Amino acid sequence: MTRVRMDLFVALDGYTSTTGQSPENPMGDDWGRLTEAYSATRTFRQNVFGDTTGSGTTGIDDAYAAAFFEGVGAEIMGASMFGLHAFPDDPQWKGWWGDRPPFGAPVYVLTHTAPRPSIPMEGGTTFHFRSGPIEDVLAEAREAAGGLDVRVGGGMGTARAFLRAGLIDDLHLLVAPIMLGRGTRLWDELPGLDLTHKVRTEVAESGTIHLTFTR
Amino acid sequence: MTRVRMDLFVALDGYTSTTGQSPENPMGDDWGRLTEAYSATRTFRQNVFGDTTGSGTTGIDDAYAAAFFEGVGAEIMGASMFGLHAFPDDPQWKGWWGDRPPFGAPVYVLTHTAPRPSIPMEGGTTFHFRSGPIEDVLAEAREAAGGLDVRVGGGMGTARAFLRAGLIDDLHLLVAPIMLGRGTRLWDELPGLDLTHKVRTEVAESGTIHLTFTR
Predict the structure, then answer these.
(1) Where does the UniProt annotation place the signal sequence (chains A, B) (predicted)?
(2) Domains and CATH numbers, chain B
(3) B215 and chain A: CB distance < 8 Å anywhere?
(4) ipTM over cut 0.85
């Protein structure tokens, strides 16, 4: 049964990192600090960096990272996560992930700009561009997932829109043990997820707090 | 060596509970939900409710509760925590804690209203009222603590003033696995505590996340 999943990085003070984004710094300032424990995992190093040496952490963070990559049949992301805002006039832009993106599934990019043709990539990823309401895009992604899950990848504007609309079944927050003091506040004007979802908390060896909201 | 300590309750979304305070509801709405796991501990039930039956939880939450009551030689709290705002015209007001408050030490109440005489209570607690700068009150409390620690008790305005001034050595946050969606935001415009303090994260059986910031 398809579930709609989302994984987000957030600091102890509730800020996510969207300051200082530019083509040269696509994830913005502080992203490295927010995701440090995650990108140190063996699973991430293997699946995203292509590191086959088996290096990387193998504890609780890695267990969540492995789950992150499992059972996803389609992905949805915002235009900024794909990089459309950074390269608005480049029809050849294919995202930040190289020729073989780690999704291995159809990826629906939300955009309000002119329609673009879909971009098939190596390894099973195809980028599709959609400008309809998120509910419609989700319905299409759900169909494409063929019984597997749909993941909403981000960025934060997209994430908050799905949360506000109550569309997320499983939310996994990686709370880094740092403060940002600036950026986008994840929790502003969101419905009380604890009323609709079961909350689970776990701390990894890195100090990262894993919060899962499941309904 | 005296350390300045503070323990605060906060929800996952960074809100603390100061909505709906009144004389009949002195801690405001949501306080019960925020402190549920803490007031369920054996230590709290014994030290605050006077429950000598040994009932209550005995896990990680209780270990923190026991530490909360140990080694404090003086306490500082804001006027609202003492109840001066709720009972401004009652010179006989002695706080919310009955004849034998659980502090057992001098308690310095910060107030800008007319000076009041100190109030000695049973069990070693004496309430003093001070209108000077927090640094001066802290110096007096430090002296009175006689080598034990000084605890800053709250409420949130007082807590944030001490944090902004960089006066807290040890901050313990009890993050309840709930969302409030309203109230005072703990983290607004505070210095990045992770730059000056070591952060430690631990999850209790109740799902409460214990965050400690130590310098």
Answers:
(1) none
(2) 4-214 (3.40.430.10)
(3) no
(4) no
